[in-house]
Specification:
Elements (H helix, E strand, L loop, with lengths): L2 H18 L3 E4 L3 H7 L11 E4 L5 E6 H4 L8 E5 L5 H6 L7 E3 L5 H10 L3 E3 H10 L3 H18 L12 H15 L2 E9 L20 E10 L3 E2 L2 E6 L6 H20 L6 H14 L11 E3 L6 E5 L12 E4 L2 E4 L3 E4 L2 E6 L2 E4 L9
Helix pairs in contact: 7-8, 9-10
């Protein structure tokens, strides 16, 4: 991204602040700060905060230990010394209305800021439209991340041999992820009954002939954009007839949700598309999580594709569609693709086959 991109984003935030009658926004280190400035600076327990006022003035308050050398075009950098009150410095110049606080600010900072501000609101609750709709360059980076993780999934079948442990497979996957990413975000290798835990990591369980294996992997690259893709594999050939029938249901549910995704549908309605198919087949209680989550500089962000959400999905949003079925003590399964919304519907960023391999 160029400095002009970040300046334009700050200007958009300022316009929204004014339109919504806010006194400003204040965000801490993390994806929100990186989105607006390009900086991933962090100061541990000390306060670092970017403020944007309704008139477009942007200031970064940071400890002198970290502020020195920071050059953010269009942003005034204000350093503070240990012993000074950074909170007074941070709220200076903000308007009299509610102030949006960033989601990465920790409770110790939030409580001090709330003592000085008339009222506060979660910044993302009023500014999510800025972050959720992706710009062309962001979509290009997400596409690159998806292609990189697809390249890893293409090599997974060769790693799943009887006698190997989940840990051994995970180490191979970490190495393969780093071939196309700057960092490994996570690796899930859930074989047999371990696959019934959606957030199982990996263990010393030995892969056996006939095991289903859930492999969910992701990394980050470029300016910090993430990949995230899940496929379910088989070691040799799964002979559990119920698993095979359930997997056909899961494929149908995921395909139907991708086909239904379009601008104007709500996140709750989209969740219901996948969930209703799985429930009709008798596995409703075994689909235990939301259907998807937004992705960008955060691995999990708005929009969340979850039951009951009235969030209206819009063109250029990027999110996962990842229904799953999990039978405790037996097996699990999940299929996950990242999609982006176009005027005509959803476009899959991940292209690896979704059938059992």
């Amino acid at each position: 991204m160029t400095s002009s991109t970040h300046s334009q984003r700050i200007a958009r935030v300022a316009r929204l602040i004014a339109e919504k009658g806010l006194g400003g926004v204040l965000v801490g280190p993390g994806p929100e700060l990186a989105y607006l400035t390009g900086s991933w600076t962090s100061s541990h327990e000390r306060l670092t905060a970017l403020t944007v006022a309704p008139d477009g003035t942007a200031r970064l308050v940071a400890p002198l230990t970290d502020a020195t050398g920071l050059d953010l075009p269009g942003v005034e950098v204000l350093g503070w010394r240990d012993g000074e009150d950074p909170y007074q410095l941070a709220v200076r110049g903000l308007g009299p209305g509610r102030v949006g606080l960033g989601s990465s600010l920790t409770a110790d900072h939030v409580l001090r800021l709330q003592e000085l501000l008339p009222s506060t609101v979660l910044a993302l609750s009023v500014l999510s439209e800025v972050f959720a709709a992706k710009e062309p360059d962001e979509l290009a980076q997400l596409q690159g991340a998806a292609e990189a993780i697809d390249g890893v999934h293409a090599q997974v079948p060769g790693l799943l041999e009887p006698g190997r442990t989940e840990e051994e497979v995970a180490r191979d996957l970490e190495r393969l992820i780093l071939d196309g990413h700057d960092a490994v975000d996570f690796v899930i290798v859930g074989s047999g009954p371990n696959g019934a835990n959606p957030h199982h990591s990996h263990s010393d369980r030995v892969l056996r002939e006939g095991d289903p294996v859930v492999v969910d992997i992701g990394g980050s690259l470029g300016e910090g954009y993430h990949s995230d893709c899940t496929r379910t594999y088989q070691v040799g050939r799964v002979r559990d007839g119920e698993f095979l029938r359930a997997y056909a249901v899961l494929q149908r549910a995921q395909d139907a949700a991708v086909a239904a995704a379009r601008p104007g549908i709500t996140a709750g309605e989209l969740d219901a598309v996948a969930r209703d198919i799985i429930a009709a087949a008798g596995y409703g209680e075994h689909f235990t999580h939301r259907t998807g989550h937004g992705i960008g500089l955060s691995l999990h962000e708005e929009p969340f594709i979850v039951a009951g959400s009235d969030r209206v999905l819009a063109e250029a949003m990027a999110f996962s569609i990842e229904p799953g079925i999990y039978l405790p003590g037996r097996w699990g399964m999940r299929i996950e693709d990242i999609v982006t919304l176009t005027a005509d519907g959803a476009r899959r960023l991940n292209r690896q086959p979704r059938q059992l391999r």
